[in-house]
Write a structure and sequence with these properties.
This protein is of the alpha+beta class and about 70 residues long. About 30% of the residues lie in helices and about 10% in strands. Strand 1 and strand 2 (about 25-30) form a beta hairpin. The structure holds zinc ion (ZN).
């Protein structure tokens, strides 16, 4: 398991900021992730920062494909 997956296991509510490609299953954070997430108290004020640390930005197209997979379709 990657650090990022472990982190999401601890904070499952953060999954809503994670994109996963339908084809290659690659994961990353949504480009619209705000600079700070302060909804869950002190602990998760680092959430946005951590997501950026553990994941790369992963924009998906309208059918849920990452840029790499999109190129082959
Ligand atoms: Zn992909």
């Amino acid at each position: 398991m990657t650090e990022g997956e472990e982190y999401l296991r601890m904070y499952p509510q953060l999954r809503k900021w994670i994109n996963q490609c339908n084809a290659c299953q690659d994961t990353g954070y949504k480009p619209e992730l705000p600079k700070e997430l302060s909804t869950y108290g002190g602990e998760t004020s680092f959430a946005a920062k951590n997501l950026r640390k553990f994941f790369k930005p992963l924009p998906l197209n309208e059918i849920g494909l990452c840029a790499v997979c999109n190129r082959f379709n």
